[in-house]
Specification:
The chain is of the alpha/beta class. The chain is built from 8 helices and 15 strands.
Amino acid sequence: MPQLIVAVLVALTLSACGATADPGPGPDTASATAGSGSDAGAGADAAVTLPPTSGTFDYQLGTAYEVDGGLDVVVRDATAEPADGAYGVCYVNGFQTQPDQADLWLGDNEDLLLHDAAGELVVDPDWPDEYVLDPSTEERRDRIVDLLGPVITGCADAGFSAVEIDNLDTWTRFTDAGTGLIEKDAALALASAYIDLAHGAGLAIGQKNAAEATTDGHELGFDFAVTEECGAYAECGEYTGVYGEHVLQIEYTDNLPGGFDAVCADPDRAPLTILRDRDLVGPDDEAYAYEQC
């Protein structure tokens, strides 16, 4: 009898949610199953809500601020509170260290950081205060998730609806064993662990950048995508072709080869496409820039 009751409840739940494995165009809800690698909700069905595909969108990683009239979708850092009344996406750096979190990774956890052939720690040349995580073994990936898992589940506890995991594309930038090597399969395996953890916490999860891996990411279980500068690099179709309308697109004022009007006219652009200043400062800063198509 207990097994029969469970079976009926599962069937009713799936029917009510209209569960689908495809997070592309369509309803803004999806059903995801947390994998066995996740401690939070492992093995349980967790319905997640995808971001709206219309309305107003802002990317507020540098400074969190409120906007008159409110917003519909807002991405903020994991250290910030979600915006009132908006669909909140929580930023987590899942493949590199945050500048103010170096102490978490050094010392006993330094073996989780990428080293070059000489044994020196590898940093991101574009962000020299960020070390690169090393997902090369299952044991390392498990320990990385142990350290970052509370950040992801903390996003859910804070009231965010989704999480975006940054720097998935490390395998495209660290390609030489002499100077530091990340294998694609290892990066995707770590991404899969994050997906399980997020879904287990009831969060949708977005693939951040890595146009080369949109199909891989979709198949792993990413629910939507967040892309920076796909218009500048003519690769927006790589995202919308896989994730449909469930793409959040950010362009930057210092890299607009054809101008923002051309970005907005691109048939492959995301429905929610904005222009921001590179440092993502607030409206009180003279460097602040914001437009939406």
